[in-house]
Amino acid sequence: MKVKGDTYQVTYDLEKAIVAFRGKVRLWRATDYEPIIQLLNEVAIAAPQKITLDLRELEFLNSSGIDILLRFVIKIRNQQSSQLVVWGGETIPWQEKSLSNMERLMPAGFQLDLV
Amino acid sequence: MQQTFGNFVEQENGDEYLVIHFSPTSLPLQQRWRNSGLSADFLAEYWSTFFPAHDVSSRNKQLEIKGGINYIANELLENIMKYSYLPADYPVSLGLCLYQDEFKFYARNAIDPDAVENFQVRIQALLAEDTQTLYLQQVEQNAANAKSIGSHLGLLTMINDYNAQLAWKFETISQDPEIIVVTTMVQLAL
After folding, report:
1. Cβ burial B85-123 (10 Å sphere, 16+ → b, else e)
2. CB 3.0-4.6 Å disulfide test: which of A18, A42, A52, A100 passes with A13?
3. Interface ipTM
4. What residues of chain A, 15 to 54, have a C-beta less than 8 Å from chain B?
Protein backbone atom coordinates (compact mmCIF):
# COMPACT_ATOMS: atom_id res chain seq x y z
CA MET A 1 0.00 0.00 0.00
CA LYS A 2 1.28 3.48 -0.75
CA VAL A 3 0.17 7.08 -0.23
CA LYS A 4 2.05 9.74 -2.14
CA GLY A 5 1.95 13.53 -1.96
CA ASP A 6 4.05 16.34 -3.43
CA THR A 7 6.55 16.26 -0.59
CA TYR A 8 6.06 12.88 1.06
CA GLN A 9 5.39 9.19 0.72
CA VAL A 10 3.95 6.62 3.11
CA THR A 11 4.32 2.91 2.35
CA TYR A 12 3.09 -0.19 4.12
CA ASP A 13 5.01 -3.43 3.76
CA LEU A 14 2.32 -5.94 4.64
CA GLU A 15 4.70 -8.87 5.04
CA LYS A 16 7.07 -7.13 7.43
CA ALA A 17 4.32 -4.96 8.98
CA ILE A 18 6.45 -1.84 8.50
CA VAL A 19 4.86 1.56 7.79
CA ALA A 20 7.54 3.89 6.40
CA PHE A 21 7.21 7.67 6.15
CA ARG A 22 9.50 9.75 3.94
CA GLY A 23 9.77 13.48 3.31
CA LYS A 24 7.86 16.38 4.83
CA VAL A 25 4.24 16.05 5.85
CA ARG A 26 2.34 19.26 6.59
CA LEU A 27 -1.14 18.87 5.16
CA TRP A 28 -3.66 21.61 5.75
CA ARG A 29 -6.98 19.92 6.39
CA ALA A 30 -8.00 16.93 8.46
CA THR A 31 -9.54 15.52 5.26
CA ASP A 32 -6.19 15.76 3.48
CA TYR A 33 -4.86 13.24 5.96
CA GLU A 34 -7.62 10.75 5.04
CA PRO A 35 -5.45 8.54 2.78
CA ILE A 36 -2.80 8.25 5.51
CA ILE A 37 -5.48 7.59 8.14
CA GLN A 38 -6.98 4.89 5.88
CA LEU A 39 -3.58 3.23 5.49
CA LEU A 40 -3.02 3.24 9.26
CA ASN A 41 -6.52 1.86 9.82
CA GLU A 42 -5.70 -1.06 7.49
CA VAL A 43 -2.61 -1.77 9.56
CA ALA A 44 -4.63 -1.66 12.78
CA ILE A 45 -7.29 -4.00 11.35
CA ALA A 46 -4.61 -6.46 10.20
CA ALA A 47 -3.34 -6.45 13.83
CA PRO A 48 0.05 -8.09 13.26
CA GLN A 49 1.98 -9.18 16.35
CA LYS A 50 4.48 -6.35 15.86
CA ILE A 51 4.00 -3.10 13.94
CA THR A 52 6.98 -0.94 13.04
CA LEU A 53 6.66 2.76 12.21
CA ASP A 54 9.79 3.73 10.27
CA LEU A 55 10.13 7.51 10.66
CA ARG A 56 13.88 7.70 10.00
CA GLU A 57 13.35 9.70 6.82
CA LEU A 58 10.40 11.78 8.00
CA GLU A 59 12.08 15.18 8.03
CA PHE A 60 9.09 17.25 9.09
CA LEU A 61 5.65 16.65 10.56
CA ASN A 62 3.22 19.40 11.59
CA SER A 63 1.01 19.18 14.67
CA SER A 64 -1.89 17.72 12.68
CA GLY A 65 0.41 14.94 11.50
CA ILE A 66 1.72 14.31 15.00
CA ASP A 67 -1.92 14.03 16.10
CA ILE A 68 -2.62 11.40 13.42
CA LEU A 69 0.35 9.30 14.57
CA LEU A 70 -0.63 9.62 18.24
CA ARG A 71 -4.23 8.59 17.43
CA PHE A 72 -2.75 5.48 15.79
CA VAL A 73 -0.67 4.73 18.90
CA ILE A 74 -3.80 5.02 21.05
CA LYS A 75 -5.73 2.74 18.69
CA ILE A 76 -3.03 0.05 18.87
CA ARG A 77 -2.80 0.49 22.64
CA ASN A 78 -6.56 0.05 23.07
CA GLN A 79 -6.70 -2.99 20.74
CA GLN A 80 -4.02 -4.72 22.84
CA SER A 81 -3.21 -6.87 19.82
CA SER A 82 0.19 -5.64 18.70
CA GLN A 83 3.57 -4.50 19.93
CA LEU A 84 4.57 -1.13 18.48
CA VAL A 85 8.14 -0.24 17.52
CA VAL A 86 9.12 3.20 16.22
CA TRP A 87 12.38 3.77 14.35
CA GLY A 88 13.35 7.43 14.49
CA GLY A 89 16.25 9.55 13.26
CA GLU A 90 18.28 11.01 16.15
CA THR A 91 19.53 13.84 13.90
CA ILE A 92 15.97 14.91 13.05
CA PRO A 93 15.19 17.51 15.75
CA TRP A 94 11.36 17.24 15.83
CA GLN A 95 11.63 13.51 16.47
CA GLU A 96 14.00 13.80 19.38
CA LYS A 97 11.58 16.30 20.93
CA SER A 98 8.15 14.94 20.10
CA LEU A 99 8.29 11.14 19.82
CA SER A 100 8.67 10.58 23.56
CA ASN A 101 4.96 11.42 23.87
CA MET A 102 4.20 8.08 22.21
CA GLU A 103 5.88 6.33 25.10
CA ARG A 104 3.70 8.24 27.59
CA LEU A 105 0.56 7.19 25.74
CA MET A 106 1.54 3.52 25.43
CA PRO A 107 3.75 2.58 28.39
CA ALA A 108 3.49 -1.18 27.72
CA GLY A 109 4.34 -2.88 24.43
CA PHE A 110 6.05 0.19 22.96
CA GLN A 111 9.66 0.67 21.91
CA LEU A 112 11.34 3.77 20.50
CA ASP A 113 14.70 3.37 18.71
CA LEU A 114 16.43 6.60 17.68
CA VAL A 115 19.23 5.65 15.28
CA MET B 1 -8.95 48.33 23.87
CA GLN B 2 -5.87 46.26 24.48
CA GLN B 3 -5.35 43.16 26.61
CA THR B 4 -2.28 40.98 27.08
CA PHE B 5 -1.76 37.45 28.43
CA GLY B 6 1.56 36.08 29.63
CA ASN B 7 4.76 38.14 29.46
CA PHE B 8 4.01 39.97 26.24
CA VAL B 9 6.82 42.20 24.97
CA GLU B 10 6.18 44.68 22.15
CA GLN B 11 8.03 43.92 18.96
CA GLU B 12 11.31 45.84 18.68
CA ASN B 13 13.05 44.70 15.57
CA GLY B 14 16.69 45.29 16.47
CA ASP B 15 19.41 44.61 13.89
CA GLU B 16 18.36 41.19 12.61
CA TYR B 17 14.75 40.45 11.69
CA LEU B 18 12.53 39.20 8.90
CA VAL B 19 8.83 39.83 8.38
CA ILE B 20 6.44 37.97 6.09
CA HIS B 21 3.37 40.14 5.45
CA PHE B 22 0.41 39.27 3.24
CA SER B 23 -3.30 39.56 2.66
CA PRO B 24 -5.27 36.50 3.79
CA THR B 25 -7.82 36.98 1.01
CA SER B 26 -5.69 37.45 -2.09
CA LEU B 27 -5.29 33.71 -2.73
CA PRO B 28 -7.50 30.74 -1.83
CA LEU B 29 -6.28 29.03 1.33
CA GLN B 30 -5.42 25.83 -0.50
CA GLN B 31 -2.91 27.67 -2.66
CA ARG B 32 -1.64 29.86 0.14
CA TRP B 33 -0.99 26.81 2.37
CA ARG B 34 1.98 25.77 0.26
CA ASN B 35 3.71 29.02 1.21
CA SER B 36 3.62 28.27 4.94
CA GLY B 37 5.93 25.28 4.44
CA LEU B 38 8.15 27.15 2.01
CA SER B 39 8.38 30.11 4.39
CA ALA B 40 9.18 27.96 7.41
CA ASP B 41 11.90 26.12 5.47
CA PHE B 42 13.35 29.43 4.30
CA LEU B 43 13.33 30.99 7.77
CA ALA B 44 15.05 27.94 9.26
CA GLU B 45 17.72 27.91 6.56
CA TYR B 46 18.23 31.68 6.69
CA TRP B 47 18.81 31.88 10.43
CA SER B 48 21.10 28.84 10.45
CA THR B 49 23.76 31.08 8.87
CA PHE B 50 24.12 32.79 12.24
CA PHE B 51 24.97 29.45 13.87
CA PRO B 52 27.72 27.93 11.75
CA ALA B 53 28.61 24.28 12.24
CA HIS B 54 32.31 23.56 12.64
CA ASP B 55 32.26 20.60 15.02
CA VAL B 56 29.80 18.07 16.42
CA SER B 57 28.56 20.34 19.19
CA SER B 58 27.93 23.38 16.98
CA ARG B 59 26.41 21.16 14.29
CA ASN B 60 23.93 19.78 16.82
CA LYS B 61 23.15 23.32 17.98
CA GLN B 62 22.52 24.43 14.41
CA LEU B 63 20.21 21.48 13.76
CA GLU B 64 18.29 22.18 16.96
CA ILE B 65 17.78 25.85 16.12
CA LYS B 66 16.78 25.08 12.52
CA GLY B 67 14.32 22.47 13.74
CA GLY B 68 12.81 24.83 16.31
CA ILE B 69 12.40 27.72 13.87
CA ASN B 70 11.00 25.43 11.18
CA TYR B 71 8.39 23.88 13.46
CA ILE B 72 7.30 27.06 15.25
CA ALA B 73 7.19 29.21 12.11
CA ASN B 74 5.20 26.54 10.29
CA GLU B 75 2.67 26.18 13.10
CA LEU B 76 2.24 29.95 13.49
CA LEU B 77 1.72 30.41 9.75
CA GLU B 78 -0.77 27.53 9.64
CA ASN B 79 -2.66 29.09 12.56
CA ILE B 80 -2.67 32.50 10.88
CA MET B 81 -4.11 30.94 7.74
CA LYS B 82 -6.65 28.75 9.54
CA TYR B 83 -7.92 31.28 12.08
CA SER B 84 -7.55 34.64 10.35
CA TYR B 85 -10.97 36.35 10.26
CA LEU B 86 -11.43 36.96 6.54
CA PRO B 87 -14.39 39.40 6.70
CA ALA B 88 -12.06 41.89 8.42
CA ASP B 89 -9.84 41.81 5.31
CA TYR B 90 -6.94 42.70 7.61
CA PRO B 91 -3.34 41.90 6.62
CA VAL B 92 -1.50 39.14 8.46
CA SER B 93 2.18 38.88 9.31
CA LEU B 94 4.85 36.73 10.87
CA GLY B 95 7.94 38.49 12.19
CA LEU B 96 11.06 36.74 13.45
CA CYS B 97 13.71 38.67 15.37
CA LEU B 98 17.10 37.43 16.59
CA TYR B 99 18.43 38.70 19.90
CA GLN B 100 21.54 37.77 21.83
CA ASP B 101 20.04 34.79 23.64
CA GLU B 102 16.70 34.11 21.95
CA PHE B 103 14.44 34.37 18.94
CA LYS B 104 11.10 36.12 19.18
CA PHE B 105 8.31 35.26 16.75
CA TYR B 106 5.35 37.62 16.32
CA ALA B 107 2.31 36.26 14.46
CA ARG B 108 -0.46 38.78 13.87
CA ASN B 109 -3.95 38.26 12.45
CA ALA B 110 -7.54 39.46 12.78
CA ILE B 111 -9.71 37.11 14.83
CA ASP B 112 -13.45 36.43 14.77
CA PRO B 113 -14.86 38.62 17.58
CA ASP B 114 -17.16 35.73 18.56
CA ALA B 115 -14.13 33.44 19.02
CA VAL B 116 -12.17 35.75 21.33
CA GLU B 117 -13.70 34.61 24.63
CA ASN B 118 -13.11 30.88 24.00
CA PHE B 119 -9.58 31.55 22.79
CA GLN B 120 -8.76 33.58 25.90
CA VAL B 121 -10.07 30.76 28.12
CA ARG B 122 -7.71 28.41 26.26
CA ILE B 123 -4.84 30.82 26.69
CA GLN B 124 -5.43 31.10 30.41
CA ALA B 125 -5.36 27.31 30.69
CA LEU B 126 -2.09 27.15 28.73
CA LEU B 127 -0.51 29.69 31.05
CA ALA B 128 -1.83 28.34 34.34
CA GLU B 129 -2.09 24.56 34.03
CA ASP B 130 0.39 21.72 33.59
CA THR B 131 0.92 21.64 29.84
CA GLN B 132 2.09 18.00 29.74
CA THR B 133 -1.22 16.97 31.28
CA LEU B 134 -3.12 19.27 28.90
CA TYR B 135 -1.27 17.73 25.96
CA LEU B 136 -2.09 14.13 26.87
CA GLN B 137 -5.72 15.06 27.63
CA GLN B 138 -6.04 16.78 24.24
CA VAL B 139 -4.52 13.81 22.41
CA GLU B 140 -6.90 11.35 24.12
CA GLN B 141 -9.82 13.66 23.40
CA ASN B 142 -8.85 13.90 19.73
CA ALA B 143 -8.58 10.09 19.50
CA ALA B 144 -11.97 9.57 21.14
CA ASN B 145 -13.65 11.87 18.64
CA ALA B 146 -12.85 10.48 15.20
CA LYS B 147 -14.58 13.37 13.48
CA SER B 148 -12.75 16.10 15.41
CA ILE B 149 -11.25 18.79 13.22
CA GLY B 150 -7.96 20.44 14.09
CA SER B 151 -5.60 18.90 16.56
CA HIS B 152 -5.28 21.84 19.04
CA LEU B 153 -1.75 20.56 19.66
CA GLY B 154 0.30 23.25 17.90
CA LEU B 155 0.74 25.64 20.82
CA LEU B 156 1.13 22.79 23.32
CA THR B 157 3.96 21.21 21.32
CA MET B 158 5.76 24.55 21.17
CA ILE B 159 5.60 24.83 24.96
CA ASN B 160 6.34 21.21 25.85
CA ASP B 161 8.69 20.04 23.12
CA TYR B 162 10.55 23.29 22.33
CA ASN B 163 10.41 24.97 25.77
CA ALA B 164 8.96 28.05 24.11
CA GLN B 165 7.39 30.86 26.13
CA LEU B 166 4.10 32.16 24.71
CA ALA B 167 2.22 35.40 25.21
CA TRP B 168 -0.61 37.20 23.46
CA LYS B 169 -1.93 40.71 22.82
CA PHE B 170 -5.50 41.46 21.74
CA GLU B 171 -6.24 44.88 20.23
CA THR B 172 -9.53 46.37 19.05
CA ILE B 173 -8.50 48.10 15.86
CA SER B 174 -11.98 49.25 14.89
CA GLN B 175 -15.40 49.35 16.58
CA ASP B 176 -17.64 49.55 13.52
CA PRO B 177 -17.02 47.23 11.85
CA GLU B 178 -15.58 45.41 14.85
CA ILE B 179 -12.03 44.30 14.08
CA ILE B 180 -9.97 42.59 16.77
CA VAL B 181 -6.34 41.69 16.06
CA VAL B 182 -4.38 39.11 18.06
CA THR B 183 -0.59 38.98 18.18
CA THR B 184 0.96 35.70 19.32
CA MET B 185 4.51 36.07 20.64
CA VAL B 186 6.74 33.01 20.91
CA GLN B 187 10.14 33.17 22.60
CA LEU B 188 12.63 30.45 21.68
CA ALA B 189 15.77 30.43 23.80
CA LEU B 190 19.11 29.77 22.13
Report:
1. beebebbbebbbbbeeeebbbbbbbbbbeeeeeebeeeb
2. A18
3. 0.93
4. 24, 26, 28, 30
